[in-house]
Specification:
The protein is mainly α. It is built from 4 helices and no strands. It is 81% helix and 0% strand.
Length: 95
């Protein structure tokens, strides 16, 4: 798979399949990176973009990057809440 194909790929299937895929992706993400680690890695990426001497971003590009960072940060927080709620419900229902 080329980079272009990878970045343009979208999940396909029925609504139930898409929901299961999304839940699985969130679960795998938080199994690999806990919330604190994911926030730290996101911040490291951001710092690298701004403080790397070879990075020459225009002001609009920097503003867009900051906006994306802020929104992605909120998305990670929201996904963490949904993931933890789902795990809690599974534990509660198993008892």
């Amino acid at each position: 798979m080329t980079d272009q194909e990878y970045f343009q790929s979208r999940p396909k299937g029925a609504e139930a399949e898409l929901k299961a895929s999304a839940e699985s992706s969130i679960q795998l993400f938080f199994e690999e990176y806990d919330l604190d680690e994911s926030q730290d890695l996101l911040w490291q990426i951001m710092k690298h973009c701004f403080f790397n001497p070879s990075t020459a971003l225009t002001i609009p590009a920097r503003e867009n990057l900051v906006s994306f960072y802020e929104n992605l940060h909120q998305m990670i927080l929201a996904a963490s809440i949904l993931h933890n709620t789902r795990i809690s419900q599974q534990v509660w229902n198993a008892q």
